[in-house]
Amino acid sequence: MNNVILYAVVSLGAISIAAAVILYFIAQKFKVVEDPRIDVVNEILPGANCGGCGFAGCRSLAEAIVKAGTLEGFNCPAGGSDVMNKIGDALGLQAEESIPMIAVVRCNGSRTNAVAKVQYDGPSSCAFAHSLYAGESGCPNGCLGLGDCVTACTFDAIRIDEETGLPVVSDEKCVACGACVKACPRHIIELRHKGKKDKRIFVSCVNTEKGAPAKKNCAVACIGCGKCVKVCPFDAITLTNNLAYIDYEKCKLCRKCVSECPTGAILELNFPPPKPKETAPVESATV
Amino acid sequence: MKTFSKGGVHPAENKIAANAPIEVMPIPKKAFIPVGQHLGAPAKPVVQKGDTIKVGTLLAKGESFISAHIHSSVSGKIEKIDHWIDASGYKRQMIIVGVEGDEWEESIDRTPEIVHEITLSKQEIIARIKESGIVGLGGATFPTHVKLMIPDGKKCDVLLINGVECEPYLTSDHRVMLERGEEMLIGVSILMKALDTKKAMVGIENNKPDAIAHLTSLAAEFSGITIHPLKIKYPQGAEKQLIKALINREVPSGKLPIEVGAVVNNSGTALAVYEAVQKNKPLFERVVTVTGKSLAKSANLLTRIGTPIAELLEKTGGLPENSGKIISGGPMMGKALTQTDIPVSKGTSGILVLPDEESTRPETLTCIRCAKCVQACPMGLMPYHIALLAAHQKWEATEKSHVMDCIECGSCQFVCPSARPLLDYMRVGKQTVGLIIRNRGKK
Questions:
Q1: Pick the CATH number of A101-286 from 3.30.465.10, 3.40.50.2300, 3.30.70.20, 3.60.140.10
Q2: Residues of chain A with C-beta less than 8 angstroms from the C-beta of B335
Q3: CB nearest to A123's CB, from B83, B335, B421
Q4: Is the pTM higher than 0.90?
Q5: How many CB atoms lie within 10 A of CB B154?
Q6: At the N or C end, where does chain A have fewer CB atoms within 10 A?
């Protein structure tokens, strides 16, 4: 009886010692040396794994930053310059000055501006509706309002307005990760400069049809008349495929184009309302 | 009685227009002729604004391998070449013709005599079919001349003619077989000559006994052509299902019917081939079934390509007040239209008007894993699973689940007790995965 216990203890002990020796050498052989700084950077990053930086997740970005040894070309849109400066301090590097961006919905085809002519009763997804037809209003480029961008947003920063049927981006919550930009089958959403005090001017239309058919489907469509291009003192506006586009790098927010647009397709956001309305007609009269 | 083995459903047939003889639709005042009426690259216009054209004049040339020529269906002046809405729901390039009179190209033989003797050689037949812009008239609009060019090393031992018309409501092929049967069978002989094959089988579903009897008596005069009644089952008119039903061969996944030595053509296409080869008439008109329970009358109209659908509806007594949906094609595979000024194209087999109560989709419920869709799928797929993957945009997994084998017949959605939009999901899955595969090929 005692022998049985003894055999078991001895044999199992021998096996465990042999296994420990083998494991030790294998662990030495296949040891992965990881830069401890990756963990440091990873701790600083927000951990949202939104993919806005262009990497698969926060850890991938941390690895890339440590490997590159510089912060040039890297940006965490979710954390902004705060996080990048912290990483810079931790690694002893200089962070790039990044201009805050925000997602902008370039369609104003609300229920009243672009009246529905047919009724869609298929699956509630923009990608699906886009593959089927032009849309309830008939505009082939306009917002379908079924919320693929809302589903894509991991920051709860975008919602569909019940009244207009259009997505609304929250100034506070949006981190410009670009998930909605990719999700929109019609490429309506664009990342633009957030602007000082959230002031922004942009052409709120992506319709590339000619003037008459575009206007037929939507009251506030860009008709490609080119008036804004002429009035812009900074050459910030270009006209391609019957559609005006304001380059946010060049735009100085002078607002001349806003009053010039005959259909009201150019939107200004977060400007003080009363004062400009007095000056706007004067400007257009002098031109 | 023969049929295909896997899956399939039997929707209510509703062949209301089966006894309505083919009527000639009046020529429209303005014709909207799309340059992309076929599967493959759209044709390039060869005419300009202001040109005077006749019926049968070449308007646009299909230049790439899978493409087809477009001919004018009317005579008159080209008003403009612009974008106009088509059945896809989007604006596409179209040639808009202001109609003046009805003057045909001199080369077209307009005599009513039936020409039996086939004088052209194999190569000449294929060339003529290509010049005439003939595409499959069953609905998929695959260019016919491409089907007839058999790749090296392959051999076609049997030609299958699709007279199944399994889609509910549609009766255009049925009427063609009844009224133009002889010409159609000459068309079949022409196709046999082009394919170098001695055997042709015409498959007709058993709900068309008059067409079966008529063609059987006519086929006695033609060598090698046999008529086969088939059990009524949807989607028997799909190429792969018809091959399985008639000759019991299975086309491998992702391959064409020629892989198993067969070529399938529609009965309407056979008639178009006859007209092109024997009468030198390009494809510019087709029979369109205009039907619906709420319409004053259902009709089979021989319509010029480019006629707005509104005119067809007017001819059948106007659009009823309570119309919920206008569908181009049949109820199973057709597509709801957004406007009535969409023109008839080569692929428009029918216009179906559904009243409000029949057109609303039932409320979508959750999938209960009853697997009815798996049983119904004629391709042996798992629609509930693929739909879920497509809904979550897992495209890689969707591809691995063989979404590209889906023939979009809609049997899964038809049997679903939870009224899930399975076909919609499958279609988007196919589109996206197809795009991914094509892009992969480019790299």
A1: 3.30.70.20
A2: 132
A3: B421
A4: no
A5: 11
A6: N
